[in-house]
What we know:
This protein is mainly α.
Amino acid sequence: EPGREAFLLAATRLINELGYRGASVQKIASELNVTKGSFYHHLDAKDDLVIACYQRSFDTIADAQSRGEAEGGSYWHKLSSTVATLLDVQFAERGPLLRTTALSGLPVGVRNAMVDRSNGIARRYAGMMMDGIGEGSIRAVDALIAAQALMALQNAAFDMRKWASTMPRERAVAMYASTLMFGLFDDQVAKA
């Protein structure tokens, strides 16, 4: 029988594809070839599942940020490394991050807690950007706005999985990251 992590990965994929209401417990259990009872052995209710999926996603992002910050080099390199790591997660079959669209199905108090954690992650990105601006490796921008934009584009990367599957993953990550970091009309990666 699959463990808790398998349930979280299957649920994340289905919720991202079908939405909170479309990803029923039955569909999640069916994806793993187990009974609904097996699902309830791991989690008490669907809201608990969504919360656990968000926690897994937030922990994945925070871990990537920590690893990026621990790398040597400039803050531009640290930020770029973090973004590349998370895009690789989004494009991989092993498990994407849960999209923010799932928030709408959660009770208000829980939703607010998830938004608060997401904002904390965005502020951490903003801190990396401000450090990079201070050292001269990142152009001066409004780091709080740029961090929220980065979070949104990282979130949307799930929708680009089919496109990403048409090329080597490293190239897909580089092309999508280039759009994130340099804008829509940058073609540095395409020329390479």
